[in-house]
Amino acid sequence: MNVVAEIQRLNERELELNVPLSGSWHQKYSESAWVYVGGLPFELSEGDVLCVLSQFGEIEDIHLVRDGKTGKSKGFAFIKFEDQRSTILAVDNLNGFKLLDRVLRVDHVLKYKLPKELQEDSDSEDEGERKQRGLPGHAYEGKELASDFDLHKGVDVFAAPEESHKEKKKRKREEKKAKKAAKKMKKIEKKQQKIFEQVQKRRQEQRLKEEREAAQREEEENGKARKEKEGKIRALEE
């Protein structure tokens, strides 16, 4: 039995026995907010994975594992939620879910640490920000303090300041970056909508299945009760 089927079996068994959360198998991972997500479509980016998982809670960190040479996704990731309880929702609802023709495997991770290179990058960024904020004159860094106005010629206070070549280049770069981000966000939203529809469809199918199974159990119990009643009547007649 594979891991996906085993997790589904455990969840179904707990539902049948009405096991409380305190006695659930999830409690073993109550100190970890990390989950493993395997079977991811290779074309998904970190942003796409966030869209899928964020429906179960706020995400604090993500590590989409990529090939060191090509940079391509290996199809699995580690996600850290802000609230550990979100991991239970993710495991129970996404495990075994089919996403873009691939079956997801979602499971708890007891102990996980980001790779050393990612930790170093994060630490160096934080340290750089702290160092920059602490240096004298940091508030003026990158700003031109000298004025181009000539007091002898006077100053036209209503004229817009001339845009320097550096500022113009920066503005165009920011505009291009904003357009690219908007285009990417639109693409992510489209994918998110498709994923949401798939989740809704799966939940609806699951509800219908549970209703059918409940009706079947009820019918079997009623049939069994009728047989017992008929048996008692025959016994009395004899």
UniProtKB/TrEMBL annotation:
Biased composition (Basic and acidic residues): 190-238
Region ranges (Disordered): 118-139, 159-238
Keywords: RNA-binding
Pfam families reported for this sequence: RRM_1
UniProt GO molecular function: RNA binding
GO biological process, one term: mRNA splicing, via spliceosome
GO CC annotation: catalytic step 2 spliceosome; nucleoplasm; precatalytic spliceosome; U2 snRNP
CDD domains referenced in this protein's UniProt entry, alphabetically: RRM_ist3_like (cd12411)
RRM domain location: 33-111
Regions of compositional bias (Basic residues) in chain numbering: 167-189
PANTHER family, alphabetized: RNA-BINDING MOTIF PROTEIN, X-LINKED 2 (PTHR45880)
Name of the protein in its database record: RRM domain-containing protein
Organism: Phytophthora cactorum
